[in-house]
């Protein structure tokens, strides 16, 4: 499927991956069509190995034959190439851009590892610590939302922006973790702004079609866990 | 009137050096404030409450933390001597290699310098491979940024005096003219450029600092046995 100017856009990815969701949302925000090439779980395609020899990971965007790797780098690329289309993903002001980038790094380096740490925890103590870190992070992100949104519906203001994409892609996995643990992480009383934001994000046209259903993700996660247990038992 | 620029840093940190190099390259005057990380200033804690780390750039009273975020901010705020190319694909590649340096090259090299035995050998091998990957990317260019210093060069500044000093302290060889001749040539070119050389810490002081750190670690280990 060709984009504006006839240059082909392909995305190598997989439906459960939050990282893959990111460029998909960005392309949707820009109204750019693309061919989605689903990787088979557990098997890396020739195209993937050729396009991302350093990390051998998804997502990879291939635009006019050239590969771009790393999800948030791809999002910035999409914002720059199709600057004239759709809505801006990064804000215009350099300081606001720095805030979006800072929190996106925090989310990837600190917050999401805490979240995935809950299911990986070997002891109750480790699990409780991970849970506390997730809550502490959400509290910081609630404050960041207040600052970045400036009273509007998204971190990006009126429309979904860089930081919305960075955090929002994890909402599916957050819901899975809530179901598994019975803990309500996005709580009206603790982080009301984020609760409202989460609903708006998932309902947005750019997100709806690419956010996996929680039940489907749960099933996938159970398969993953079983495989992991089998592998470690060997 | 230009808004005040301050940099909170630590002279031993390559991450802080990155910020100073970028500001110097762009001819931006700034005030440097040295932080004692064992006794962090109230200002640092106020400006970077999330991580409580250096570097922090404060521009007109507004703080920005995380060295790569700071570099992008500097690039967007002061347009002179750009450190990123105009072409979006080349920009994406520069960001990719910068991330590779931060997530793979630096941490694995750092770990290899401070570990021992089998683990150290494994990490050393991985470090050499990472450096080879970087070297292939540099290829025949003068700098990663082409003819002038760019974002990737600045991110790779740890390959200048830090690597030299740390290898000496650890007593191992990871990076040198024989193993990575192209990268080695780059490092010398980089270190001798005007904007960079004024920002690098004095080698002998850096050596003393890391020697003391290693001795401290050995003493702690001996005390634990």
Automatic annotation (TrEMBL), chain A:
<dbReference type="InterPro" id="IPR004046">
    <property type="entry name" value="GST_C"/>
</dbReference>
<feature type="domain" description="GST N-terminal">
    <location>
        <begin position="7"/>
        <end position="86"/>
    </location>
</feature>
<dbReference type="InterPro" id="IPR040079">
    <property type="entry name" value="Glutathione_S-Trfase"/>
</dbReference>
<dbReference type="InterPro" id="IPR010987">
    <property type="entry name" value="Glutathione-S-Trfase_C-like"/>
</dbReference>
<dbReference type="InterPro" id="IPR036249">
    <property type="entry name" value="Thioredoxin-like_sf"/>
</dbReference>
<dbReference type="Pfam" id="PF02798">
    <property type="entry name" value="GST_N"/>
</dbReference>
<dbReference type="InterPro" id="IPR036282">
    <property type="entry name" value="Glutathione-S-Trfase_C_sf"/>
</dbReference>
<dbReference type="GO" id="GO:0006749">
    <property type="term" value="P:glutathione metabolic process"/>
</dbReference>
<comment type="similarity">
    <text>Belongs to the GST superfamily. Tau family.</text>
</comment>
<dbReference type="GO" id="GO:0009407">
    <property type="term" value="P:toxin catabolic process"/>
</dbReference>
<protein>
    <recommendedName>
        <fullName>glutathione transferase</fullName>
        <ecNumber>2.5.1.18</ecNumber>
    </recommendedName>
</protein>
<dbReference type="GO" id="GO:0004364">
    <property type="term" value="F:glutathione transferase activity"/>
</dbReference>
<dbReference type="InterPro" id="IPR045073">
    <property type="entry name" value="Omega/Tau-like"/>
</dbReference>
<keyword id="KW-0808">Transferase</keyword>
<dbReference type="InterPro" id="IPR004045">
    <property type="entry name" value="Glutathione_S-Trfase_N"/>
</dbReference>
<dbReference type="GO" id="GO:0005737">
    <property type="term" value="C:cytoplasm"/>
</dbReference>
<dbReference type="Pfam" id="PF00043">
    <property type="entry name" value="GST_C"/>
</dbReference>
<feature type="domain" description="GST C-terminal">
    <location>
        <begin position="93"/>
        <end position="224"/>
    </location>
</feature>
<dbReference type="InterPro" id="IPR045074">
    <property type="entry name" value="GST_C_Tau"/>
</dbReference>
UniProtKB/TrEMBL annotation, chain B:
<dbReference type="InterPro" id="IPR040079">
    <property type="entry name" value="Glutathione_S-Trfase"/>
</dbReference>
<keyword id="KW-0808">Transferase</keyword>
<dbReference type="InterPro" id="IPR036249">
    <property type="entry name" value="Thioredoxin-like_sf"/>
</dbReference>
<dbReference type="InterPro" id="IPR036282">
    <property type="entry name" value="Glutathione-S-Trfase_C_sf"/>
</dbReference>
<protein>
    <recommendedName>
        <fullName>glutathione transferase</fullName>
        <ecNumber>2.5.1.18</ecNumber>
    </recommendedName>
</protein>
<dbReference type="Pfam" id="PF00043">
    <property type="entry name" value="GST_C"/>
</dbReference>
<comment type="similarity">
    <text>Belongs to the GST superfamily.</text>
</comment>
<dbReference type="GO" id="GO:0005737">
    <property type="term" value="C:cytoplasm"/>
</dbReference>
<dbReference type="InterPro" id="IPR045073">
    <property type="entry name" value="Omega/Tau-like"/>
</dbReference>
<dbReference type="GO" id="GO:0004364">
    <property type="term" value="F:glutathione transferase activity"/>
</dbReference>
<dbReference type="Pfam" id="PF02798">
    <property type="entry name" value="GST_N"/>
</dbReference>
<dbReference type="GO" id="GO:0006749">
    <property type="term" value="P:glutathione metabolic process"/>
</dbReference>
<dbReference type="InterPro" id="IPR010987">
    <property type="entry name" value="Glutathione-S-Trfase_C-like"/>
</dbReference>
<dbReference type="InterPro" id="IPR004045">
    <property type="entry name" value="Glutathione_S-Trfase_N"/>
</dbReference>
<dbReference type="InterPro" id="IPR045074">
    <property type="entry name" value="GST_C_Tau"/>
</dbReference>
<feature type="domain" description="GST N-terminal">
    <location>
        <begin position="3"/>
        <end position="82"/>
    </location>
</feature>
<feature type="domain" description="GST C-terminal">
    <location>
        <begin position="87"/>
        <end position="210"/>
    </location>
</feature>
<dbReference type="InterPro" id="IPR004046">
    <property type="entry name" value="GST_C"/>
</dbReference>
